[in-house]
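Researcher: I'd like a structural prediction for the single chain below. Treat it as a standalone chain; there are no partners to consider.
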Amino acid sequence: MYGPPRTPRESVHKGCAYHGCVPKLPDIVRNPLAFIAARWTPRPALVRRAVLAALVMSVVIVITGGAVRVTASGLGCPTWPTCSGDSLLGTSEMGVHHAIEISNRMLTYVLCATVGWAIIAIRAQAPLRRGPYRLAWAQFWVVVFNAVWGGLTVLTKLNPYVVSLHFLLSAALITVAALTWLRMREGDASPRPLVGKPVRQLGQLLTAASAVLIVVGTLVSGAGPHPGESSGAYKVRRIDVDWKTIAQLHADFAWVVVGLTVALWFVLRAVDAPVGPQHRVRDLFLVLMGQGVIGYVQYFTHLPAALVDLHMFGACLVWIAVLRVLLSFRERPFAEPGETVPAAAQAPKSAASGISA
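Model: Treating it as a single chain, here is the predicted structure.
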């Protein structure tokens, strides 16, 4: 009369039909990263390559952004987020400046893809390393914020202060990407200092001076003869200072950084520090010398576009070299004393010893 009793599954479906409950989503939709990690474990070398690719792209986007500026293509797409009117890409009739600007915009998607690949690779690695994983996600959010800020540079018609902060945000991206790369080449155990506190403090002073050098460099760019747009359709503001005076201040800070680098190298030699920190300081000195040559040549040749862009590339290399010096002052083993090191977590021997490239 009453029929057979309903099974629990039938009761749930009937309840959903009457009360509108939401069915459970598949795991791949609810947490795609965990879904991938449960089914795929990448080799450590692949993870390191993914992280390195993100770092390389963070430098490439600076170079292409510099090319946009020095070729006066900053308003090759006069609107944002579209390029012109309702068109996302614009048209070929808009000319070479449009092609340069839209190419830089499209490379942002490539950058997002490489950062996303790094996030997936780190998340899928076993065991999960939370420190590098958080740094990888930080890269993603910096990319998103900087992309929006890049749109603001267009909407403000290349306001020099907005453009300067756009470059500094790119430097922040390089910072996080470089730290992720360096962290993947060491362990997660408690850090152990390789040099004394005074040496570490000298390294911190070098890092601070290098950061000031980069900031002053953005002021040189904001006041210099490359406003980023040359059509005359828009009045592009410049920072209201004499760019040659700021350039001299920039050169003075460069010599301060060089002096601190040489002093740090002598101190490391005097205290018989491990070869890792000594090699990192040597590398920094060589990069600084190359960057100095480019800087003086471009100044005395009245800032040719190609050298300005090359100088921006050198600035990226200098900052990465400074971060390598700072992190070389300590080591982080892959396990605490007495713990077993998982084979999948081990880095190449040269990297673990602090003398890797």
